[in-house]
Amino acid sequence: MANIKGAQMKILIPVDGSGSANRAVDQVIATASLLKEAPQILLLNVQWNIASGNVKLFINRKTIDDYYRDEGLAALKVAREKLDAAGLPYIYHISIGTPAEAIVQYAQEQQVDQIAMGAQGQNVLSALLLGSVVNKVLHLATVPVLLVK
Hints:
- This protein has 5 helices and 5 strands; from the N terminus they run E-H-E-H-H-E-H-E-H-E.
- By secondary structure, it is of the alpha/beta class.
- 30% of the residues are buried.
C-alpha cells in the first residue's frame, strides 16, 4: 500500500458484516500508519435488490428503503466502530444491487486507489457467495484488490 502519487490514498473497503470483511478493516487500520498521509477510507455495504417484481406491489418504497438502510447500517456497525476507535476518518455508503458490480462501479465513481476486502464468508453458503463476489471483483476491477484472509 505505497502512497506513490504523493496524494492522499483512497481505499474502498466493501463490508458485509462478516468477520472476513472486518479483518480487511483491521488490515487497513494496521497499514495506515505506513503511509505519509492517512488514507481516505470509504466503507461500502451493498444490499441485494429485493424490491423487484411483485414485491413493490405489496410493500411501499419507504419501508423498502428503511429496510436497506437498517440492514446496511447493521453490516457496517463493527467496521465503523473499529475505525472510530483507531481515530481514522471515513465515509460510508449503502448501495443496492449486485455486490460485485456495485463495488466496482463505486470504486470507479470514487476513483479509489485500492479495494481491500475479505477473502471468505462466515459459513459454506456465504463462502460460496462471497467467493463469487471476490472473483468477479478481481475480474472487473481496474485498481489493485487486496484480499484479506
